[in-house]
Every structure is written in structure tokens, then in C-alpha cells.
């Protein structure tokens, strides 16, 4: 079941853990058959489910010195979960990717190489997933790539790609910016306004997608990453700054911890100061916390390519009148975890007040309100103040997002209806943290799979087409172009079925099932396999095969009715098996019984008035009888019409058509026999021969009697 579906598996190997994501989409060849006009102009529709994800801890990077253990100790449970979801007969057609992010980027290069190699070898040895290229499927991706995938996922879910008219932010801009913050790094990706895009064209990435009808779609996107700017790495840098100021053998006043909370530099709660070990002592001064975390932005670093945002890294100027950003991961958890609930738009003034009220409480008061049923609730509470101060500084001091509720936000010339529609979705402001859009989690992994699925769509034109993927912003296919990793092959190269049901003829599937069954089952599937191959052959070849089979099965004629019935039964079976129409059988029966005065050549024209074939045994009307996976072959219908008149004794035309000798044809052999019997019985032959051969009004309908085109 479900042969119309494609599946994809991707493992997000982050710094804190590895998360499995499974996606499903309809095969493009199948989707085209029921696509609306809007569907044809849209990207493939991917689906996922809450049960199709699973996360385990710690991260893959912790296996840097023990790579041999990463498979059985880390990946196996994720693989087993995927196999519980994906149909067994689709596993070999399902690609699997493992893409590691910031945690792996911090490892030495030699450890990265050994670990990714071991992961690929383990998956190839122990699974049947499609993994043809280790370098493409198992890799440590750059932060820029992670940001670009996130940008694709965000705009895909919001509809910025498929419905640009509903997402006009002004100045012809209809896409959303993307912000992501994890444990070790932070990313930004956005499409600059037209002025900045032209000014910084060399800094942009060229992204190519493909809609369902094969049309190319291009976007020019800026993306960059700040390694070390994730919340965990930023926290380590912050503690180091406290140790530099107060020393490593003393109590370190920490304004980012609630009052009364003592922890080790690693964040473990403690109740006493141990000699020789620094201890962080919470003071609960949030304004001071903001001042302490600001220098970590690196705003004082030299900017070699203006403008710059964080750490001296170049970023084109952001036009917040048209660039509306969506923030995921820590942007969501830090604004909605401890300090708020619900899908609320971000308001700086309200949020900062909530943070201050929380962080300036005593730790005992905070503990008394914690929900003991929630895992890690105490740890999240003790880290919340630092994370909030870091997010506020990155978002407003670093990236420059206007402070909603305090600063005036630039507005673009947007129509009233578009503005109201955007308000309903909550994305009219310059920044909004999200976890899900609709019912789907916003993850960069979705962007990668959207790219892969788009690469399976055949291009509309094979002349001058460009592949799906991304690379440097230049014409053609740049040298650093990263391909989607997919191609536009049919889901089943052997299938000639065109409906959306699951009756696709798959020889590999039949043989696979045959091997797993008993000997009896094997022969049954083998018979189906041979029948399938037969019906996939061209019509003229099927006729030749039928002739040979009939000559073997056919017995000499006897006058007894019993023999005649046996021969008729066999011929009827052959008619059904090989696609011969019943008219030839009628012709034989009339002549055998000698009813010459009632003889009339059966109608052998298989076409209806409108020219369409009415043969019940012909290939499907959609032209899929060629047997190729493409489903093409409209030209075969003409050949089917020419091969239908087997009973017509037009001897002179047979060699021209490349058909077998008329004496090999069942209908013609019988006709020759019957004529000899008529000659032996003159009283039966009188006045009959001419009428039966030339006088039949239906004889002219035979396509074999039509003049053949020259050449």
C-alpha cells in the first residue's frame, strides 16, 4: 500500500542531542494527475507527524573519541523508530541524511572525518535506506547552510513561496527572514531589499527550487552564522569573564542568577564554597545582567566589510519595514518557556518586565512555584535569566530588531487587506518567535527535505534547465553549487499504471515477495511476473507470441462436437489471455457449422465512432502501454488499431506490415479448411463464395483494407 508516497529521513545532529525527522510527500508523477492550477504553481506538499520525530541525548559530538560506539549506542534507536513508521517496501527508496551542526563544528577536523565516516558505514551496513553518497548524505553542514535550510522551511510553511500575493510586505517583498539560536551557534537568513541585494550581490546565495509543473523558482538570500553565539557557548564565555574579574578561587557574584542560588561554573547547584573551586553566587540583578552580557556581542570588533552586526561579521543592512523575522529554537523557548505561555507575538516592553519580575525573586520563592512534574523545570528556571538577557542583547543590540512597545517601527506601503491578513497570522511585526506554523514544527530539516523533494520534479523544459540546489550568486551552475541530492526518476521504472491506486506493476516488488514465500508462492508470483512482462510488450509482438502458442495448443479438427468444444474452450482461454477479440472465434464457428448462407465476416474494426479504442484487452487509454516509467506512449494507439484485424485474409498486406504468414494465423487457417469443404460440397457452395469474400458490408471496416501511406 502507499506506493504513491515518497519518504525521507533526516537526523539533526545538534550539540545537545540528535533528533530524528521523517517526512512524506506524494510522488510528483502521481501528484500531477490530480493537481489544481494552484498546485501546479506550488512546491511539493510535505507532511510529517508528531510521532515521526524522536530525540535522544547527548549529541553525536560526544562520540568524537569513541566513533565505533556511535552506531549501536546512539543511532540504532533512531533507526528502529524510523523503520516503525516507514513501510517496509519503501525503505530502499527512502533517503537518509545525518547532518551535524555546531556541536560537531567544534571538534577537531580529524575527529569530524572519522565520526562521519563511521556513521555512514554503520548505516550502510545495518539499514536498507538509500545512502549512495556518504559525502552528500552524512556531513557536518556549515552554519550558513543550516540558516538557508531554515529560511526555506519558514517561507514554505508561511506560504511566502506559493502565495506571494498574500504576503506582500511592501516594495515587492514577500518572504520572511529566519533567525535560529541553538546551544553553540546562531544563524540569520533573509532576502535583502532590492537596493541592498544589488549592492551586496556577491554576498548572496542563489537558491533554485522547482514547482510541481516543472517551472524554476529562484531566490537570492543572505545567510551567515555566529559560531559560539548559541546560549550554552555564550554562557561559558560569560563565566570566563567573571573568573577573569574575580579570580578562580573565590565566590563570583552572578547578577544573572536568582538571589540565593549557588552553582558551580558548570551550572550544578551547590550549598557551599569548596576551596580551590569558584562558586557562582546569584544576586538577581537583571539590569546588571544585561550590562554583563552585552560585551559578548563583539560589537567592538573591527568590521572589514561594512555593515556588520555581531563579532565583526558582515551582514547587509536590514530593512525592517519589509524584512519580518521568525525566530525558532531558543528564540521560542526563552520567550515562552518560563516567562510566558501561548502563541503570543513578541512585545519587548512586556517581555522585559516579566523577566525582571522573575529574576529578582529569591530562589526559594521560585522553587516553591516550580512544577515538579515537568522534567528539568528547576534547571530551566536557574538558566532562564541569563538566556533572556542574552536573547534581548542579540536581538535588539546585535541584530537591531526594533523594540516593540518602545521604539517606532518603520512601516511599508502595504494594502489594508494585506495588513489585516498579516495581523491575523501574527507576522506583521518585525520579529515573532514560533515553535510551529500550523501543526508542523519549524525546523531547518524541513527546508532540506523540501529542496530534495523539489529536485525530484522533472523540469518543464530540458533545454537550458538548471538543477535544484544552491550556490554562489552567479549565472548558470556555480562551481560550489550544492545539489538537492535527488533526481526526477519515476517512482517505479517498470510501472505503466496511471491511476493513484496502489496497483503499480513492480517486478522488483514481486520478486522480493516471491523470495520470502514458499515454493508454491514463488511460482505464483513468477507467473504474475511473466504475465506482466507479456502485457507490457508491444501489441504486434504479443500477436506473434499468441500465434506460436496457439499453434502449439491447437489440435487437428474432428467432426465430433466434443472435440470442437474443447478446441473452442482453449481458443477462448487464449483469447482472454493474449488479448484476441472474440470476433475471430465467431468467424470460425460459423464456417465450421457450414451455415454458408448466413455467413458474414465479423466486424474487426475495434474503433468507436470517435476513433477511440473499444478493445477490452488493449492497454490503458492514457497511453501507458509502453512499459516505461514515464507513462508516455500516446503513439501506440494507432498501432493497436492496425493489429486488431487478424481474421481478415488480406494476404498481400501481411508482409508489408511485418506480420507473420497468414497460414500461421488461427482465423486464416480455419478459413482455408472451410473453403476446401465448401468446394467438396457444390450444393453448399452455390451462390455463397463471392458473397462471403467480397459482398460483406462489414468487410470494408477492417483497417487492414485501408490504403497504406507510402514510405
Protein architecture, described:
By secondary structure, the chain is α/β, with parallel strands linked by helices. Among the domains are: 1-141, 2-Layer Sandwich (Nucleotidyltransferase, domain 5); 507-536, no CATH class; 538-705, no CATH class. The strands form four sheets. It has an eight-stranded mixed sheet. Helix 10 (286-293) packs across helix 14 (377-398), helix 17 (507-516) packs antiparallel against helix 18 (519-536) and helix 21 packs parallel to helix 24 (666-680).
Quick recap of the structure?
The protein is α/β, with parallel strands linked by helices.
Kindly, what is the distance between the CA atoms of the first and last residues, rounded to a whole number of angstroms?
48 Å
Mean model confidence by pLDDT: 75
Number of separate strands:
19
- Work out the helicity level: 25-40%
Q: What is the overall number of helices?
A: 26
As laid out across the biggest beta sheet, the strand order is 15-14-7-8-10-9-18-19
Radius of gyration: 37 Å
- Low-confidence segments: 412-426, 490-519, 552-711
* Overall spatial form: globular
Strand content: 5-15%
Query: Which structural category fits the helices and strands?
Result: alpha/beta
Q: Describe the biggest sheet? A: 8 strands, mixed
Which helices and strands occur, and which strands form pairs?
Elements: E1 5-13, E2 18-26, H1 28-31, H2 37-40, E3 46-47, E4 53-56, H3 70-85, E5 96-100, H4 102-105, H5 109-126, H6 134-137, E6 138-140, H7 143-158, E7 177-181, E8 185-190, H8 194-199, E9 205-210, E10 216-227, H9 231-246, E11 251-254, E12 262-263, E13 279-282, H10 286-293, E14 325-329, H11 330-336, H12 348-359, H13 363-368, H14 377-398, H15 416-425, E15 431-433, E16 436-437, E17 440-441, H16 444-454, E18 469-472, E19 482-483, H17 507-516, H18 519-536, H19 539-553, H20 561-578, H21 583-592, H22 636-642, H23 651-657, H24 666-680, H25 682-685, H26 689-693
Parallel strand pairs: 1-5, 5-6, 7-14, 11-13, 14-15
Antiparallel strand pairs: 1-2, 2-3, 2-4, 7-8, 8-10, 9-10, 9-18, 12-13, 16-17, 18-19
Helix pairs in contact: 7-16, 10-14, 11-14, 12-14, 17-18, 19-20, 21-24
Organism: Trichocladium antarcticum
Protein name: Golgi apyrase
Region (Disordered): 601-646, 681-711
